Amino acid sequence: MQFQVLGVNHHTADVAVRERLSLGPDQVAASLAAWARRFPDVPLVILSTCNRTEWYTEQPVDEETLTQFWAQAVDLAGWEEPLRSALYRYGGEVAARHLFRVAAGLDSAVLGESEILGQVKQAWLVAQSTMALGSLNRLFAAAVRVGKRARHETGIGKNALSIGHAVVELAERVLGSLHSRQALIVGAGEMAALAGRHLKTAGIGGITVINRTPERAQALAEELSGRAYGLTALPKLLFQHDVVVAATASPLPLVTRAVVREAYGQGMGRRHRFWFDLGVPRNIEPGIDGQLEGLFLYDIDDVRGVVEANRRLRLREVEAVERILEEGLVGLKEELGALEAGPLIRLLRQKAERIRQEEIDRAFAKLPAMTPEERAVFDQTTRLILNKFLNDAMVSLRQWGQDDTKHQYLEAVRELFRLSEGSSEAPMAGPWTLAKSEG
Amino acid sequence: MLGSALLAITGIAYGAGTWWAVAAFYEPWRQRWAYGLAWVGWLAETGWLGWSAYALGGTALFTLDRWLGLLEWLSLAVFFVFASRRNWETVLGFLLPVIFLLWAVGILTASARSRPDVLGALLVLHILLAALAYVALLLSALLATMYTEKERELRRKHVRLFYYRLPALESMDGLSASLITAGVVLLMAAIFTGAVWEKEVSGRYWTWSAKEIWTLVTWVAYSLYLLARWRWGWRGHRAAVWAMAAFLLVVVNLFAINALFPGFHALVF
Q1: Which of B26, B170, B241 is the mutation pick for testing A, counting most A CBs within 10 A?
Q2: Measured between alpha carbons, how far is A268 from A262 in angstroms, rounded to an integer?
Q3: Which of A134, A281, A295, B48 is 20 to 30 A from B165 (CA-CA)?
Q4: What part of B 204-233 touches A (C-beta under 8 Å)?
Q5: Smallest Cα–Cα separation from A320: which of A152, A89, A206?
Q6: pLDDT tens across A240-271, in order?
Q7: What average pLDDT does the segment A56-62 reach?
């Protein structure tokens, strides 16, 4: 396993450095094309997201060569020092484990977020369309498998970690599917828009926006495919909606006990509702939920409390994901080991079989009286002897193929049995220098 | 021998299933095992009920252990139907402990007595209707309990296990009400078939026995629940508390009334 990753991420660089170093889709494609022209035998995958830019190569490549290409893609003038101090490089198994952690969401700023898995897949596909990826293909395929397993078999990607998403989650935990529900967004500021977008993405049945300035309400309503009203419609609309998100800058509560009492008197008080008061100062009079049966009222701190509980829950899943990750690593090593030792095993078997066949033919020539049945027994017996003799050697070769420290054993076997003679497997030539990896 | 083995497998599967189903609240991957164990227990119980009927030459539902066995069997059968359609496996964490408890009570009160010759088709129908009614009411009470547990976490704004593992409040509330509707109809049908059978045996439809009165009170309590939902819009917490309280009437009916008062239903002891 000779992989290498070189890059920066949110752990090592702040956003100013990351945005300078990140590559857009066009820059990634151009860099890959330039790389493929110059080093067609060195597979490369570039993963560039808002939290990381990483260069994965099949074998160690020196830092200079890679940063040179990086500098061709983005203007690094004046950023050399921040890049150098933020740069990390892992090699071999450590590099593979790093990619697995990235794909599983363990290395994300938001633990377990699922977007990164799609980004890993996309980076892999883009690189695939540019050059042959060799064993990098197996590395990325294994990483995607690990990422999928982590999300299916553990709770690492479950439960909301943002306020907007938590609003949807809480509403769904009370009301079930939101497809037939109506949401009222009070306010047209950033928080209101954020919650509205999450509700829309969750497929809520309809959204109404009300705001002191009708034009702003209209603009947000258009974005959310909803209806817009002025603030005066609030008392009437409040009880026609299942989910209410209030996020205005009003210094006084907009929803008071008097408003609720009036609506309750109209016989609209007992169904389940969820009101979110995301405004500071609060837009809904505190304690109003005690006045109305079936109403749940959460302010911004309550929602944050749920987000924090969700985060703790995800942290508890890390151990299970690490187990999946180790299994993935073992699987990858086996796969690569078979790949590494495969040609040698084939050569050894071919040579042994050729010798057996020659000796059998010679023996048959000396014993012309042998019946076809006797010949078959003779043939079968010699084959069994050969297989039994080679079996342990095959197992050892496969194991050595998985272990970087025992690669020289493979070479020794090749020399011992003179298996490289006539083979076209010459070492690859390239302008890179083998770098000392951290792994 | 075969009957004892099947009964033992049933109990072991229900017991182990209970442990796994409760543990699944903490570690969801255990859910599959709990579900599998519930199936094993249910299949073994199917065998045990069948074997009992074969060995005694009749349905033999006049003993408490077999009657409870029928209740356990039907509860799980109804659960499997719901769980396969709605992905509600977590109900098992509440249902299996109750089923295991019923199994244990059945074992402790196991009786060799049987009256298979008395069971005509009408009486079998009456027993089945009553059992189905009790199963519906049991499941509704469990859903109401689940509702109040999850609601408590949400009201305290301190989300823990049930917030994550239990279905949406409104879904539990709606399903509980549907089960009570079914339970009320089935109980009414059971009372009706019981009355017709009583007429055949004693010449009177209604004898004002403790069992009849208590069953009627139970039926009225659940009917009031439905009336409150329909007429006064009861939902959520209030409805859940009513469903749980009303189920106490069923428990008293099943155990105390049968034990304390003489009559046909006392035969189960």
Answers
A1: B170
A2: 10
A3: A295
A4: 233
A5: A152
A6: 899 999 999 888 889 888 877 776 665 555 78
A7: 92
**Chain A closest-CA separation from residue B138 CA (Å):** 23
DSSP assignments along B21-32, one per residue: HHHTTT-GGGHH
Q: Which two tokens stand for residue A192?
A: 């209101």
Closest Cβ opposite residue B157 in set A267, A294, A305? A305
Q: What percent of chain A has pLDDT over 70?
A: 94
Type and span of the H or E element at A54: strand A52-57
From the list A16, A50, A268, A385, the catalytic residue is: A50
Q: In terms of residue numbers, what domain contains A351?
A: 336-416
Q: What is the DSSP letter of A154?
A: S
Judge whether A436 lies within some domain. Answer: no
Distance from CA of B231 to the nearest CA of A (A): 12
Q: Are residue A136 and residue A51 in the same domain, yes or no?
A: yes
Same domain? A345 vs A384: yes
Mean pLDDT, residues A222-229 = 94
Q: Does B32 touch chain A (CB under 8 A)?
A: no
Say if residue A168 is in the same domain as residue A188: yes
User: Touching check for B26 and chain A: CB below 8 Å?
Assistant: no
Mean pLDDT value of segment B13-23:
96
Query: What was the pLDDT predicted at A436?
Result: 38
Mean model confidence pLDDT for chain A: 87
Instruction: Classify residue A326: in a domain, yes or no.
Output: no
Chain A 166-205, residues with CB within 8 Å of chain B CB atoms: 170, 172-177
Residues A10, A78 within the same domain: yes
Minimal Cβ distance to A296: which of B154, B234, B235: B154
Check whether residue A17 and residue A149 sit in a common domain: yes
- In the block, tokens 């490369």 appear at A44
User: A284, A257 in Cβ contact below 8 A?
Assistant: no
For residue A176, list chain B residues with Cβ-Cβ distance below 8 A: 167-168, 170-171
CB neighbourhood size of A366 (10 A): 7
- What is the Cα–Cα distance from A190 to B38, expressed in whole angstroms? 50
A147 located within any domain: yes
* Same domain assignment for residues A193 and A291: yes
Residues A365-386, mean pLDDT to the nearest whole number: 90
Q: Is residue A187 a part of any domain in this protein? A: yes
d(CA A396, CA A26) in angstroms, rounded, equals: 46
Model pLDDT, residue B144? 97
pLDDT tens digit sequence for A331-356: 998 888 777 788 888 888 888 999 99
Chain A residues with CB inside 8 Å of B29's CB?
153
Q: Is A271's Cβ below 8 Å from some Cβ in B?
A: yes
CATH value at residue A58: 3.30.460.30
**Is there a catalytic annotation at residue A50?**
yes
Nearest CA in chain A to B171: A176
CATH of the domain at A264: 3.40.50.720
ipTM: 0.88
